[in-house]
Protein 1
Amino acid sequence: MPREISPCLTFSSTFRKLGEGGVWRCSAGEPEPAALLSCDIRRGRPPEQRAELAQALIDACVETLGLRSDRLVVEFTQHTSDEMYRAGRGWAAEWTPAEATGAA
């Protein structure tokens, strides 16, 4: 079972399938198939919280999709609240540390 993600963490996800051989990891050896997870989040979360989310996403991909953890990369792009707009809700609120504890 994938790691449980903190209930105070709300996120949307999208899977963009590039097809077989769409993403490759290139190093000293031969190129190998890989996967990249890109997360757009509000600025302010501490590195430890981002690392916990990254590991939970990797674990879920390994378990549900059969991917190799050493071929997965998670990238975070951090945004200010005025760069994230949701219909019916308007601009996102700035992230606060209280959200990490569920107190928000």
Protein 2
Amino acid sequence: MQIILRLADLLDMKKYRISKLLLSKNLENMSGTSAFHWISHSVTNDLKINVTYSTKDGNVNITGKDADYYSFLQSGRIEEKIELEIHFQSD
């Protein structure tokens, strides 16, 4: 559960999450990591996640004697492609 929450937090990087006034007043007191996160929020307009799935072709025997033991979810049969589309502020 911690990993899911951390990923959700990292991917929620829109500029509404920070105050530019607070950033400018506290930037020199922040660690490099914190400053990076705050600045990345301040310049990000939007983030979109695009996910596509595809299956690999293969011979599937669902009528033979081993049909009861066959799984369509064999390792490597389904491919998942995840694309992050980040829209930065252009001004």
